[in-house]
């Protein structure tokens, strides 16, 4: 008799389930760990606990009806997902977007990216046992949510972009509010630096922990801060510029070390870069329409196969559309970044101590509803 | 060996710097809001559940029962009915039910209404123990409000 839970008596390892309800996984992710004492022999992520068939829904709804779904995959950088989807449909249907709308998209997406990184920062330090930084990060993040709420009407699951433009225009109070917020965050960054980044406990817990080599990141298709922390200089915004990103001057932070500290530093630097983009976009913001003059009524892309990728807060998010010329997709494939980023966890965590593996997992910045979709 | 002591000293210093920062924030004004006691004002664009807009003269809903909102809703949470009445042009709305349990507050309905007959409400204190509490009869709600 060799049942599911029976083990060979001579075997020294045991199975430990991390999740699906575990505070460190930040969602319903289950990781099956094969442990030898405190050391991980093998780790296998088990997915599917929050699968909602977003791709299938896309095939059963009209193009516009799928819009609210985009905000419910990666709820922390929902606007990037909005952007990926509308951009893919615009490419497929050949819809022109007025310049002002593109600028508004960039401004709101970058604000959203900062808020996502701030939340990750707080939650990550919380995983490592530091509670206070979370509260400071949320204080700043709250300001962004207020700003975004004043334009989009919602605080988290945004549904702001439309085919050919955006839903609402911004007003002067948003512009001054954003500028003030950037000033405030610039002042706060040295505080985060002194409180967390330079803290000896954080350094000890992150430096040389969870190394991911360039090769490993490539093999698993990792993108975003995970890849950039391993020395891969790739950012869709820079290397396949979409929207109006080519008009801004910003850097892509890349760190060669590949450890958890490198991934931490990439995200902290990205906050500054996003602030730079927002400032330039506010300076250059053109006047004009936010939706095409001829309103987009019926979206019916030509028969064909289309792809568009954007840089979300966690990496490259791609939308592939196969259209058969009707008013809904024949096939909608969503390529989410954390799915690939998580899949390297099994190999990267081999031989690590459990608490260190949790630091590694936190540094991957997982959002479970986005992995499962 | 000297590296070890150097790190020991700089590490301990970093801890005290952190303590200093949290200590400073301890004496700064509180940023949180005591929510149930204090009431948060919603911004003008806040998207609550939808409500019917009354006609300014008659107080009756402006809706002409074209059904576009129902058709545009991705979650199929609007059901409405109308009837023809003597002496009234067009149809008269007799039933407008919003099933808020499946509404995703996306705003497709408001956008697809060409007659400006629905808008987002500013209600957000919505909690209830029963599912039926979230099946809103919007005509009744309009009557109660006026
Ligand atoms: S907000 Fe969206 S989901 Fe809710 S009733 Fe309107 S169309 Fe339907
Ligand atoms: S779209 Fe407007 S007018 Fe038409 S049924 Fe809906 S609420 Fe009434």
Walk me through this protein's architecture.
The complex is a heterodimer of chains A (373) and B (146). Chain A is an alpha+beta fold and 373 residues long. Chain A has one domain: Orthogonal Bundle (Cytochrome-c3 Hydrogenase, chain B), CATH 1.10.645.10. Chain A contains 15 helices and 8 strands. In chain A, the strands form 3 sheets. Chain A has a 3-stranded antiparallel sheet with strand order 1-2-3. The mean pLDDT of chain B is 82. In chain B, the strands form 2 sheets. A 3-stranded antiparallel sheet of chain B has the order 2-3-5. In chain B, strands 1-4 form a two-stranded antiparallel sheet. With 146 residues, chain B is an alpha+beta fold. Chain B is elongated. Chain B has helices at 2-26, 68-72, 108-112, 138-145; strands spanning 50-52, 78-84, 91-99, 118-120, 135-137. Chain B is 29% helix and 17% strand. Chain B folds into 2 domains: 1-31; 50-145, 2-Layer Sandwich (Alpha-Beta Plaits). The longest helix of chain B has 25 residues, at 2-26. The site of one iron/sulfur cluster (SF4) has 13 residues of chain B, from helix 2. Residues 50, 72-75, 77-78, 98, 103-109 of chain B line the site of one iron/sulfur cluster.
């Amino acid at each position: 008799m060799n049942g599911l839970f029976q083990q060979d008596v001579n075997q020294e390892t045991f199975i430990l389930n991390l999740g699906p309800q575990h505070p460190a996984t930040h969602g319903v992710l289950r990781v099956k760990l094969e442990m030898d004492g405190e050391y991980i022999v093998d780790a296998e992520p088990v997915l599917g606990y929050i699968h909602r068939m977003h791709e299938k829904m896309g095939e059963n709804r009209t193009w516009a009806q799928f819009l609210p779904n985009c905000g419910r995959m990666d709820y922390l950088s929902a606007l990037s997902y909005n952007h990926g989807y509308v951009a893919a449909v615009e490419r497929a249907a050949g819809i022109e977007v007025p310049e002002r709308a593109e600028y508004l998209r960039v401004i709101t997406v970058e604000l959203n990216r900062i808020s996502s990184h701030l939340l990750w920062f707080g939650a990550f330090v919380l995983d490592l046992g530091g509670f206070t930084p979370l509260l400071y990060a949320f204080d700043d993040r709250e300001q962004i949510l207020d700003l975004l709420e004043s334009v989009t009407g919602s605080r988290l699951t945004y549904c702001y972009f439309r085919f050919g433009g955006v839903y609402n225009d911004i007003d002067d109070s948003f512009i001054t509010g954003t500028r003030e917020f950037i000033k405030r965050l610039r002042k706060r960054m040295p505080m985060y630096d002194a409180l967390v980044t330079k803290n000896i406990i954080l350094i000890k817990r992150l430096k040389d922990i969870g190394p991911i080599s360039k090769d490993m990141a490539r093999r698993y298709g990792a993108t975003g801060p995970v890849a950039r922390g391993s020395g891969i200089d790739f950012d869709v915004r820079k290397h396949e510029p979409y929207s109006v990103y080519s008009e801004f001057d910003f850097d892509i932070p890349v760190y060669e070390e590949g450890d958890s500290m490198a991934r931490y530093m990439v995200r902290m630097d990205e906050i500054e870069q996003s602030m730079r983009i927002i400032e330039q976009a506010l300076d250059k913001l053109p006047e004009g329409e936010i939706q095409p003059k001829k309103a987009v009524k019926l979206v019916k892309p030509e028969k064909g196969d289309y792809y568009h990728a954007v840089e979300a807060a966690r990496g490259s998010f791609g939308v592939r559309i196969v259209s058969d010329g009707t008013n809904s997709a024949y096939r909608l494939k969503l390529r989410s970044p954390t799915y690939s980023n998580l899949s390297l966890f099994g190999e990267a965590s081999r031989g690590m101590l459990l608490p260190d593996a949790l630091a590694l997992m936190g540094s991957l910045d997982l959002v479970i509803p986005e992995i499962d979709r | 060996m000297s590296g070890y002591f150097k790190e020991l000293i700089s590490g301990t210093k970093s801890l005290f710097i952190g303590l200093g920062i949290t200590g400073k924030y301890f004496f700064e004004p509180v940023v949180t809001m005591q929510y149930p006691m204090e009431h948060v004002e919603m911004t003008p664009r806040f998207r609550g559940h939808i409500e019917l807009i009354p006609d300014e003269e008659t107080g009756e809903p402006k809706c002409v029962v074209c059904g576009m909102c129902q058709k545009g809703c991705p979650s199929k949470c609007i059901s409405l009915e109308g009837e023809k009445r003597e002496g009234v042009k067009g149809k008269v709305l007799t039933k407008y039910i919003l099933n808020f349990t499946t509404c995703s507050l996306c705003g497709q309905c408001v956008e697809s209404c060409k007659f400006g007959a629905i808008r987002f409400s500013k209600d957000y204190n919505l909690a209830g123990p029963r599912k039926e509490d979230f099946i809103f009869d919007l005509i009744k709600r309009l009557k109660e409000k006026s």
